Amino acid sequence: MSTELYPGKHLFVDDFRIQEMQAARRVLHQPVKHGDNPVLRPEQPWEETAVHAGAFLYDERRSCFRLWYTSQAGTVIGTRVLVRDNPPKEVRESHICYAESSDGIHWERPDLGITNQQRYPGNNILIPSMRPPGRTELCHLVDDPADPEQRFRMIYLDQAEEGDPGGGLAPDQKLRLHAHSPDGIDWTVRPWQPEHLARLFGVLSYLDEEPRGELRPEARYILYGQRGSPWKTRQIGRRDSDDFVHWSGNRPVLESRLGDTPGLEFYYLQGAVRNQTWAGLHLGMLGAYHADLRRRYDPARNDGVTDCQLAWSRDSVRWERWPEPFIPRGEPGSFDYGGVYCEYPAIRGDRLYFMFTGNSTWHGQRGESTLGLATLRLDGFVSVQSEGFTEGVVVTRPHHWSACELRVNVQSLTGGLEVQLQDETGRAFDGFSTGEVEALRTDGVDTPVSWKEKGRDLRELEGRMVALRFTLGPEDRLYSYTLVPISGG
User: Fold this and answer.
1) What does the angle CA 92 – CA 345 – CA 61 come to, to the nearest 5 degrees?
2) How far apart (Å, rounded) are the C-alpha atoms in residues 150 and 127?
3) Upstream peptide bond of 38 is cis (omega within 30 degrees of 0)
4) What are the distances in angstroms from CA 360 to CA 59, 264, 294, 336, 337?
5) Is the Cα dihedral 38, 44, 48, 51 positive or negative?
6) DSSP 106
7) Concatenated DSSP letters of 288-324
8) Fewer CB atoms inside 10 A, N or C side of the chain?
9) Span 381-405, average pLDDT
C-alpha cells in the first residue's frame, strides 16, 4: 500500500497520514439525532407492525432523498370449513416499499400503481411477492451510474408458491432474487436460479459456513454482513461480485477480540456496496451487539442490544473500529432503546444524513421498529483537537508534492489554526511558514489556505518532499484537508 500523500481529501478517522502529534488528539463526533424522531413510522396497513430501512441516498437530479425499505404487517391465512380443513393461521407478511423526502424528515409514499392488491389500494409497494401474503424482503440495493439501464440493482428475498420452481420452502427459508432498474422504481426481476437458495443471504451465509473463496479488493461490488465464527459468535463477513448476481464465498474480515467487552459481537456492517473509497478509506456503519450474558441457557445469545460504531479499512479486507458508539441507542422508553441499525450515509451539500432503524425493545423481544434520522457536518467523523487549553500540533508524513492548493474542513472561530509547509527535516519552505500564513477564522468545510506573500498557489513545491504542520488553538477542530491536484488547478 502506497504511503504517498496523493492529491485529494484526507480524513483523520485513522492515523495513517500522521507522523507526529504534540498536545493533540483525535476525537470521534456523533451525528445529532433529529428532535422529531422517528421520522418514519408505521402509518399504512401494510406497515402495521414495522418498517426497516434498506437503502438511503440523496438524488441530485430529483433534488430529494430516496428511501427503499421493508414493511411488515400481520395477517391471517386459511379458512376453517371443516374441523381440520385449512385452519386460519396468523402470519407475518412483508413488502418492499419506496418513499421520497425533500428534507429527510417529512416523507411521502407515492401511489406507484405497481402492486395492485385489494387489501392495500393506493400503496407504495415496489415488487409484487411471488405468493400471497407478501413475502418480499429487501436485502441489498446499489446505485451504480456506470450502466444507465441497470443503474439500480437489488438483491431481495421471497417465497414461491407450492409447486412453482423454488417452492415448498420452510417458513424460515427464502429464495434469493435479483432485479435491476433504470430509475429505482420500475424493476425487472431476473429468473430465479436454483443456486440462489440462501436462507440467510441477508446476513451473507449460514452462521456455521466455513470461510472460502478468494478475497478480491478490486471487485466492483462488496457486501458486508453478519456471519458465524468458530466460537459461534456473530462476526462480519465479506462477499464480492462484478455483476451483483454471482458472488464469491464468504470470508471473515472483522470479529471481536480478547480485550473487548465480554459479550461484544458484530451484527451488521453497512458499507458503500459499490467498491469506492471515501478520502482513501472504506467506511462502514458497524452494528456492535452486546449480548446479555446473564442468561445461562441461550447459546444463540438472542437477548441483547445494538448500537452503531464507526469502522474503517484501507483495503476492504482488514477492518478497524472506534470502540465508542457513533450513533448510540436511546434511553429506556425511546424508539431506539433496543437497537440502532444504521444505513450508509447520504450526502446533501455540506451535511451527512444517517437513516437508521430504531428498535424499541431488545433483540429477541417483540417491539416496534421505526426509522430515525441523524446528521453530521461533511467529513465530520473525527477531528484533531488540542489537549486542554494549549496549542496542539499535528504533522503529516512528508511526501512528494503534486498539489496546487490546500483546503481545509475546519472549525476555528478564534483564528487559532495555522498551517506550515515544511521539508522532511521540519524546516519551513520560504514563504510558507506558520508566521506567514493568513489567519483562519472560519467554520467551513472547504476553506482555502493562503500565505501572505505566496497566496494560494502551491505549484512551486511540485516534486519536493513536503509535510504539513497544523497548529491548533484550544477551541479549533480540524476535520480534514484536501490537496487540490495540479492537473485540476
Assistant:
1) 100
2) 16
3) yes
4) 30, 20, 21, 5, 5
5) negative
6) S
7) EEEE-TT-SS-TT---EEEEEEEEEESSSSSEEE-SS
8) N
9) 94
pLDDT at 117: 79
As beta bridge partners, residue 369 has 50, 359
Contact 421, 414 (CB under 8 A): no
Rg (CA), the chain: 25
Q: Give the side-chain half-sphere CA count within 13 A for 272.
A: 16
CB distance 140 to 100 below 8 Å = no
d(CA 268, CA 225): 5
Please tell me the distance from the alpha carbon of residue 89 to that of residue 78, in angstroms, as a whole number. Answer: 6
Tell me if residue 475 falls in helix, strand or coil. Answer: coil
Tell whether the model's pLDDT for residue 154 goes beyond 50.
Answer: yes
Q: Of 76-90, 287-301, 316-330, 444-458, which range is least confident?
A: 76-90
SS3 355: strand
Burial of 431 (0-12, 13-18, 19+ CB in 10 A): middle
Contacts of 113 (CB under 8 A, 6+ apart): none
Cis preceding linkage at 133, omega within 30: yes
Quick check: 87 and 81 in contact, CB under 8 A?
A: no
pLDDT at residue number 78 = 46
Predicted confidence (pLDDT) at residue 469 exceeds the cutoff of 80: yes
- Rounded to an integer, what is the distance from CA 26 to the centroid of its chain? 21
CA-to-CA distance for 33 and 195, rounded, in angstroms? 42
Contact 356/40 with Cβ under 8 angstroms?
no
- φ/ψ of 286, rounded to 5, equals -105, 130
User: What count of other Cβ atoms lies within 10 Å of the Cβ of residue 143?
Assistant: 15
**Alpha carbon distance 481, 13 (integer Å):** 12
H/E stretch holding 471 reads strand 465-472
Cβ–Cβ < 8 Å for 69, 138: yes
Residue 100 scores a pLDDT above 50:
yes
Cell, residue 81 = 370449513
The DSSP annotation for 374-437 comes to EEEETTTTEEEEESSSS-EEEEEPPEE--EEEEEEEEEEEEEEEEEEEE-TTSPBPTT-SGGGB
- Tell me what pLDDT residue 480 has: 97
Least confident range from 12-26, 190-204, 206-220, 259-273: namely 190-204
d(CA 436, CA 430): 9
Q: Which three cell numbers mark 441?
A: 477564522
The CB-side HSE value for 187 (13 A sphere, CA atoms) comes to 28
Q: How many CA atoms lie less than 13 Å away from 194 in the CB half-sphere? A: 1
Amino acid at 153: R
pLDDT tens column, 436-452: 999 898 999 999 999 99
